[in-house]
Write a structure and sequence with these properties.
Layout lengths: L1 H26 L6 H9 L7
Amino acid sequence: MSALAWLIPAALILGGLGLAAFLWSLRAGQYDDLEGAAWRALEDEDEPS
């Protein structure tokens, strides 16, 4: 029973930190350009001369 007294608050704190990080990433614009990253991965960086 005493293990639950530590595990439940720890799970709530970690969940809150994850939620805070997700909300920060939304406000910072991390998900604005989802297509650009896919196209940049397919482009060749070595251009023939």
